[in-house]
Amino acid sequence: MLGSRTVVDRRPAPRWLGKAVIIYALLLVFTFIALAPFVYAVLSSFKTPDKVLEYPPNLIPNPWTLSNFTDLFNKGGSDVHFARWLLNSFLFGVSVAALNLFCSSMAAFALARLDFRGKNFWFWVVLAVMMIPGEINWISVYIILNHFGPFNLIDTYWAVILPVAAQPFSVFLLTQFLKGLPVEIEEAATIDGASAFRTYWQVILPMARPALVAAGILGFQGAWNSFVQPLLYLNSPTKFPLTVGLNFFNGQYSSHTNLILAGAMFNTVPMVIIFFIFQRYFIQGAATSGLAGR
Amino acid sequence: MDATMQTKQAPVPTFTHRRSLKRALRRNITAYLFLLPFLFLMCTFILGAAVFGLALSLYHVNYGIDTPRFIGLDNFRYLWDQFQNNRDNFEFGIGLKNIVVYAFFVIIGQTVLALSYALLLNQPLKGRSLLRTAIYLPSVTSSVAISLIFVYLYNNGGAINAFLSIFHIHGPDWLNNPNTALPAIMIMNVYTTAPTFMILFLAALQGLPVSLYEAAKVDGASGFDLFRYITLPLLRPTMFLIVAVGTIGAFQTFDQIAVMTQGGPLNATVTPVYSIYDTAFKQYHYGLGASMAAVLFAIILVVTLIQRRFIDTNIQY
Lengths: 294, 317
Known about the structure:
The structure holds two protein chains of two kinds. Chain A is mainly α.
């Protein structure tokens, strides 16, 4: 959507060199502002404990050390489970993304491709619930999880997965996409006698791949970065995802700046790599959120 | 969609009324089976939870000790009373005051910065997509990681003060000074949210009609005229949208506060949502916390509705 250069490139290039220089200078400043904190934090995570807080600070570590990264896994008190936090974050992200894709794509298929009573009403509800601010649900979800049928889900992985496994935004994104697919193929499938489920599974889903990838990545990102839900609904340090683990670690060992920075890198770098690979989808998602807001 | 159904049924007109009813029923059941997993989760954890949350605000909840007791509007009366009589010490009230200031500056900051990013990146430049990637980066990372990085940068002997000292400015101890802690978090928030909104501006800019610009240029309009009289007015709907989304986001600020300052120093960075967390999950006053959430919800709703009145998305080119 944004990658296309239909409109912009038809405009003439900057006429004078002066204008181009100003634009590039401004962009350079903005890029510096955007990248400087990361670059500095990355470099500082390779500094030794005494050098990380020296004043005036030096940009380049001297000497370079990898011990911050290895110490996170080896040292620390008995309540620091760094490898476990990393694994939890990963499992959390994957489960939320998968479960959300499953629920949302089926709902979107119904809303976009099937005909039934209450269709418009439910689509409206999906849009409306996006406006509910999360914190109004914090306390009630806590109580619901505590009495989920016969189960107490507080301090289990379910407590952080189930409440975010159905994301209205994904349904909106997928519904918009599925509405745009041609009807003919589906008609052919129906005439061939395929059931609705087979049409969904074998015809529609493969065609919806770009939208599914976008929804999946956004779901993973949301879970990987999420902080509040696990903070509220998990108690045991072994179950924390990395975000809550880092905050916990920061509270206990706030003077170990070098370790905190190295830990933050474990949270940041995987997301940045995913972003570089799937950029297009992030930007599509962000642009669609504007559509939903309307 | 309707057209599809008709074409499908048209070749078989021999259906009796009863059979077509049966078919319609089956069609509805199929559709609702597809919706079921999503609807179950949404109705439990979003819709139902919201209604339940609002109801909880009418209860005294001593969770795990005795059963919740219905107390009508007492929680709200208590909040109002505290708000009136105990202004300087009432965390939720201070939070509301803080968040108004916070939202005001953050919204202006992020909208202006996002628009500047977008206008620059909309120019036909070499390496544009690379620059866009770089600028978008702060929006990708988690609030916790960003907050931890900024705690390090805002440190009294940290990088930001070292940078300021180049210009002979003696920087404050940002996060430990009640006068600078909130502004410090505002700056960080503008920095992380602007790139997201930049995408919305870019999408809008690329949808503007080229013909208008060409016509204006023929009429001899300068570059600034084009911006002032064409671009800016046509961006109005997007701008209002960004302000509305930004307001909702700003009013819900929590993560940064929990990681960086826990509301301190001297309540300078307490936000309403942090106060809800404190009341419900640290002091275990669940009912009171729920009533604070209801008040905040009402405030956000009113602000959004007021803004909606100004949003005019039906601009014709």
